[in-house]
Design goal:
By secondary structure, the protein is an alpha+beta fold. It has 5 domains: 28-100; 109-214, OB fold (Dihydrolipoamide Acetyltransferase, E2P) (Beta Barrel), CATH 2.40.50; 275-371, no CATH class; 373-441 and 501-531, no CATH class; 553-694, no CATH class. Helix content is 52%, strand content 15%. It is globular and about 95 Å long. 40% of the residues are buried. The chain crosses the membrane at residues 29-47, 54-72, 78-100, 267-289, 301-322, 357-390, 410-436, 448-468, 475-497, 503-525, 532-548. Residues 51-205 form the DUF4131 domain.
């Protein structure tokens, strides 16, 4: 009885303390605005059916009106405004989905003539990849898709493909591929919001034709293309491709071996223009302008040269944003950089959590679909964690810097660099695990080498090279930049070869990512000790990875591949042009492609295959894969689960789970879990529901 009374008293004391802490952090409440907007966006994507188009705006209007009427009651008004922020996010993504709707390629179209205007063209190891705006597709009736992505094989050459040019070619057009497994990455959804209506590959060499003059967007894209080619020609090789990515954001020419090495060492963030790059360019321009103007006494004494330099930094970062393609991380970085230097213009504090919150809210309202992408999640997670950490440690860092001499400050810089790497890696790890199923074990030593090289050598020379390009003098600064990039690539390859450099982990459930996100926000946005409670959902979210059980059987939506789980991976039955699908299955299971057993006797299953059937037993159930029609009758008689890679004209009967080619075309990829007396079947169609981007399930991808 005494223990119960003590527990009750403890809870009664805890609630007032929590309320007092929340009240004490009342200046932090606005920081949750983008979180509320994000909840509305997440709610939209979680729906199984598309809601009425007026729903978000109507609810938002009602809540805002109610908050105005009840403005004399602060608590009620605050709750209503929080709900209004959620409704604003829901309304924003509804508007974005409505404006993104456009025709798409619904089925494979054999080689047909396409006339289009090039929006983007970038080299790849296999040839040239173009994003084009179709102007004419032979045989197509009705409105055209907004954009197509077409690959031109290297053997066809490059007649001068560049943004703004008009091109005619014959190409096979394909629908967008559906997810490889339920709850996997949804390329159709991403493409829907990008206005991408289909894929294709050229069957004849493209031919340039005369067209209308290019607009401003084409002019910028053309400048980007020209600068990319000049950088790659001056430096050459993988270093040239990486250097071009750092300047123009064009990453298509980077070899896959380099991408893998950078990803496995935690350096992939250097290849995507984001906060580090924008802040370096803005900072370099600011320091250069301020130093030059300070050297002129007539300017330094009588004019606000610091503010002029800040304005120059804003313009330089705006040019960098436009040149690099204006991707989401770059937009966020530009907004934050612009606000930082704008604060200098009005003599206000620059970097703060409020700045991060306003930048996040702006992007979520303007580009709400970005919230479900890896780039938005990882870039904001890193920035939020770093700003929160340095805000908490700023007094101690200032005290240390004041007490240290020159050599001590060097050690302080190295220590802060390590601290920054640890914080950024910890903040982005849950998102890297969810999206890529990879963890870079040696990110700290890799970043200790690469980040200083990038900051003090590579990017300063990049700025000099861009300034020298109009005069044709970029060769020597690009050569110097290339030396630094080569050192980064050598370090990445060396560290990636260390034992255990990268770990593959099983698929992370969405609920686990939500827990980690909520915990991280709680930890960063509050100020009092109650922020430490955020560690609990983070820990639970990471433990959730261990709850994932890979499916026992996986079937591709195009009936090109079937995988059966064994010890440590999957046996693959069919592999007709399905390498990407199979790689996704293996990555999400953190498994390997198992060698086919030469003899029966495996304790897990006994696979036996001939020209008609593949048989195996798992979890006490018999599963048969029918590869031809003449094996269907025997399959139905001898198994509890039948997977027919051909259409079935009859039902196998009661108690038999049967999946045929028509089911796969209609429902997409299937995941089957055996055991418990009955097979549990999950499909891509059931996981995604009926949304604007789910009109096409089956898709060929012969590229």
């Amino acid at each position: 009885m005494i223990a119960i009374d003590a527990a009750t008293a403890g809870r009664e004391r805890l609630l007032p303390r929590a309320m007092a802490a929340l009240h004490g952090d009342s200046d932090r409440w606005p920081l949750w605005l983008p979180v509320a907007i994000g909840c509305g966006i997440a709610g939209y994507f979680a729906l199984a059916e598309e809601p009425a188009g007026w729903l978000g705006a109507a609810v938002l209007a009602i809540l805002v009106a109610a908050a105005f009427v009840l403005r004399a009651r602060p608590v009620v008004r605050g709750v209503l405004l929080a709900l209004a922020a959620i409704a604003a996010g829901f309304a924003a993504i509804q508007v974005s989905a409505w404006t993104a709707d456009a025709p798409r390629i619904e089925r494979r179209l054999p080689a047909t003539t396409v006339e289009a205007r090039i929006e983007h063209a970038g080299p790849r190891e296999s040839g040239m990849r173009m994003v084009v705006q179709p102007l004419r597709i032979d045989g197509w009736t009705g409105p055209l898709p907004r954009r197509l992505r077409i690959t031109v094989p290297a053997r066809m050459g490059d007649p001068g493909l560049a943004p703004g040019r008009r091109v005619v070619l014959r190409a096979v057009l394909l629908p967008l591929p559906a997810p490889a497994v339920p709850d996997a990455f949804d390329f159709q959804r991403q493409a829907y919001f990008q206005g991408l209506g289909g894929l294709g590959y050229a069957t004849t060499a493209p031919r340039l034709v005369e067209g209308e003059a290019a607009g401003a967007a084409d002019a910028i894209a053309g400048l980007r293309h020209t600068m990319t080619q000049r950088i790659q020609a001056a430096i050459g090789g993988a270093a040239g491709a990486v250097a071009a990515a750092l300047v123009t954001g064009e990453r298509t020419a980077i070899p896959e071996t380099v991408n893998v090495a950078m990803r496995d060492t935690g350096l992939a963030h250097l290849l995507s223009i984001s906060g580090l790059h924008i802040s370096l360019v803005a900072g370099i321009v600011f320091l250069a302008l301020r130093t030059l103007m300070a050297a002129v006494p007539g300017l330094a004494l009588y004019w606000p040269v610091k503010k002029w330099a800040a304005l120059g930094a804003i313009l330089a970062s705006l040019f960098y944003l436009l040149l690099s393609g204006s991707e989401v991380p770059t937009q966020r970085s530009f907004l934050m950089s612009a606000i930082v230097f704008a604060a200098m213009l009005v003599d206000r504090e620059a970097i703060s959590l409020r700045l991060v919150a306003w930048a996040a809210a702006a992007i979520l309202l303007l580009v709400p679909e970005a919230m479900v992408g890896a780039s938005f999640q990882m870039s904001f997670a890193a920035v939020l964690a770093l700003v929160a950490a340095y805000e908490a440690g700023r007094p101690r860092i200032r005290a240390l810097r004041a007490d240290l001499g020159p050599s001590g400050r060097v050690f302080l810089y190295v220590g802060l660099l390590c601290f920054t790497t640890v914080i950024a890696t910890a903040a982005t790890t849950p998102f890297a695990l969810y999206h890529f199923n990879r963890f870079a074990a040696y990110a700290m030593p890799a970043n200790l080498i690469a980040v200083p090289l990038t900051s003090f050598w590579v990017m300063p020379w990049a700025v000099v090279a861009v300034l020298a390009m109009p005069f044709g003098l970029e060769a020597w600064p690009l050569a110097a930049m290339g030396w630094g990039v080569e050192l980064i690539l050598v370090a990445a390859a060396w560290i990636a070869a260390w034992p255990g450099a990268a770990w593959t982990v099983p698929a992370m459930p969405v609920a686990s990512l939500a827990l980690c996100t909520l915990g991280g926000l709680w930890l960063c946005l509050w100020r009092h000790a109650m922020r430490l409670a955020g560690l609990v959902p983070i820990l639970l979210g990471l433990l959730g990875i261990g709850w994932y059980q890979p499916p026992d059987v996986l079937v591709d939506g195009d009936a090109r591949a079937v995988a059966v789980r064994g010890p440590g991976g999957y046996w693959i039955f069919e592999t007709r042009a399905a390498e990407i699908v199979v790689d996704t299955w293996l990555r999400r299971a953190a498994g390997d492609r198992l060698p086919w057993p030469e003899a029966a006797g495996s304790p897990h299953l006994l696979p036996q295959c001939d020209q008609r059937l593949c048989r195996f037993r798992s979890q006490g159930q018999r599963v048969v894969v029918a590869r031809r029609r003449d094996g269907l009758t025997e399959a139905c008689r001898s198994a509890e689960v039948v997977i027919a890679l051909v259409p079935m004209r009859w039902d196998c009967g009661r108690g038999v789970v049967a999946i045929d080619r028509r089911d796969l075309e209609r429902e997409g990829a299937h995941a089957i879990r055996l055991g418990g007396g009955k097979a549990q079947v999950e499909t891509v169609a059931a996981a995604r529901g009926r949304r604007p981007w789910t009109a096409t399930i089956a898709a060929d991808e012969d590229q």
